[in-house]
Amino acid sequence: MNGIELIAAERQRQIGKKGWSREHDDWHIAGELTDAAECYLHHANMLEQLIKPSYNMNGAPSEWPWQACWWKPSDDVVRNLVKAGALIAAEIDRLQHKRA
Q1: How far apart are CA 91 and CA 59, in angstroms?
Q2: Is 32 helix (H, G, I), strand (E, B) or coil?
Q3: Residue 54: band (very low, low, confident or very high) from pLDDT cuts 50, 70, 90
Q4: How far apart are alpha carbons 60 and 55 in whole angstroms?
Q5: Can you give the pTM of this predicted structure?
Q6: Which residue stretches of the chain are H helix?
Q7: What is the DSSP string of 45-64?
């Protein structure tokens, strides 16, 4: 799969298996979705540059908007980018829904 397909599949997983629907995402009005995406992007960047994260792999970065138990980074750079992309897609959908 290419990047767009991977992100779309992850977004569908979030909706289907986690229940993070558009209605659920509508509650995230303080930038949480983009903050979470940024955390996964930062983590992917550190892995790509072979930099050890400044936080414990079992903990969450201070910018993580939710409970630490929801922070689930991967050792795979692409997987973290896919999660970030799906979170960005969720934020775009939330904003589009808000405009309608």
Answers
A1: 24
A2: helix
A3: low
A4: 7
A5: 0.87
A6: 3-18, 22-25, 32-48, 77-99
A7: HHHHTTPPPSS-TTS--TT-
